[in-house]
Amino acid sequence: MRGHLDGLILAVLEAGPLHGYAIIEALQARSGGALDLPTGTVYPALRRLERAGSLAGSWSTVGGRERRTYKLTRAGKHALAAQRGEWEEFREVVSRVLSADPWPATG
Amino acid sequence: MRGHLDGLILAVLEAGPLHGYAIIEALQARSGGALDLPTGTVYPALRRLERAGSLAGSWSTVGGRERRTYKLTRAGKHALAAQRGEWEEFREVVSRVLSADPWPATG
DNA sequence: AAGCTATACGTTGCCTGTCTACATATGCAT
DNA sequence: ATGCATATGTAGACAGGCAACGTATAGCTT
């Protein structure tokens, strides 16, 4: 996801807290199946976001299985807003350069 | 530029061959000043693209200064088309997930 | 002549993010 | 017992991007 993973994770947690496995499924669902991120990508990212203060994690046991549920912190919401802004800017710049007319100064 | 740099470089070379320094300036111009890429980013990328067969480089001397001018190869044009396709997909997925309604199933 | 800026090339070495592969454990169905 | 879905995680490799550094010429100013 080339540096945009953090934003995506924060975005799916905006609707409410989820645990890691559910986050992977949520990303899959929201992307229409396009995003199938391996645990080796997502779990470290969650740790990273927690360490950064964007997420708060807590353990619970559901049906004999251990779960670590993450929720957005206030800082996380700000981070999400920032990520959305940065994404818009990034998107615009890349789209502009990528689709620039190959004919310089036609008229 | 997180993995999209190659596409941007190929895109500015679509209009015609340029040397490294001019590529940096072209990216700056096309992005409205947003992109100010350091040489440590661009020159290795050019080498990489040449090694990959997307660019063909040639030396020349202009005004006593050495220049390495790069032009798109046929493979490079295909690579550019592929990059554009990938970008569209990437853009759609990220935009969708990032801007997904926080209210699941409103009605 | 000395110094500065713009032009033009490049490398080295670090940091970060991502992924593959591996490791662990439970519940449930067969 | 075997296998699958659920659920967590780590270790190690790899690649891209960047800051910092290094080299050199042309041209202008002082």
Structural descriptors:
Arc Repressor Mutant, subunit A, three-stranded antiparallel beta sheet, 4 helices, 107 residues, homodimer, 3 strands, DNA-binding
Structure description:
The structure is a homodimer of 107-residue chains. The radius of gyration of chain A is 17 Å and the shape is elongated. Chain A is 53% helix and 17% strand. Chain A is an alpha+beta fold. The longest helix of chain A is centred in the C-terminal third of the chain and has 25 residues, at 74-98. The model of chain A has no long low-confidence stretch (mean pLDDT 94). In chain A, α2 packs across α3. Chain A binds a DNA duplex (30 and 30 nucleotides) through α2, α3 and β3.
Task: Describe the structure concisely for a colleague.
The first copy, chain A, is α+β, with helices and mostly antiparallel strands and 107 residues long. Chain A has helices spanning 5-12, 20-30, 39-51, 74-98; strands at residues 18-19, 55-62, 65-72.
Number of strands of chain A: 3
Number of domain modules of chain A: 1
Biggest beta sheet attributes of chain A:
3 strands, antiparallel
Low-confidence parts of chain A lasting 5 or more residues at pLDDT below 50? none
Strand order of the largest sheet of chain A: 1-3-2
Average of the residue pLDDT scores of chain A: 94
Assembly annotation: homodimer
Radius of gyration of chain A: 17 Å
Q: What is the overall shape of chain A?
A: elongated
**Distance separating the two termini of chain A:** 39 Å
Task: Give the class of chain A from helix and strand content and strand pairing.
Answer: alpha+beta
Indicate the proportion of strand residues of chain A: 15-25%
CATH superfamily of chain A: Winged helix-like DNA-binding domain superfamily/Winged helix DNA-binding domain
Question: What name is given to the CATH topology of chain A?
Answer: Arc Repressor Mutant, subunit A
How many distinct helices of chain A?
A: 4
CATH architecture group name of chain A: Orthogonal Bundle
User: Can you identify the CATH class of chain A?
Assistant: Mainly Alpha
Largest contact between chains: A-B, 32 and 32 residues
Helix content of chain A: 40-55%
Order of helices and strands of chain A: HEHHEEH
